Amino acid sequence: MSSILPWPAWARVVPAALYTIALFYAGCADIGLPRTSAVPLDKITHFAAFLGLEWLLELALGEAAAAPRRRAAVAASAGVGGLLELVQAALPHRSAEWLDLLADTLGALAGAGLLMLLARWRPPRAAEAPPRPR
How far is CA 33 from CA 16, 44, 45, 90, in A? Predict the structure, then answer.
């Protein structure tokens, strides 16, 4: 089975690991974020952040077949979101919210869905292309 990108494994795993570390840093830091009731920026940020994590995890799992890779990336991304919410529950300056976990999970699912759509639209590779009639 060939990888989705012909990069060495470490070059696919390192971005996902660094992104996860950055998510935890941002999720645990004592930074004042603007709050507004008109636009749920917090939930939109969660959605987008975990959509991106799902993409990087799929890249990191590039050796697996598409469906198992996608399921594992969604589960891992949602799991990271759940773990982050548990950590935030223990911090005095942060709070854990079910809606954040929902936004994380929906972002991961949307990431997988977008990648599925992109995979359907891309032309087949030369090795996958059907033979030409002679």
Answer: 25, 13, 11, 19
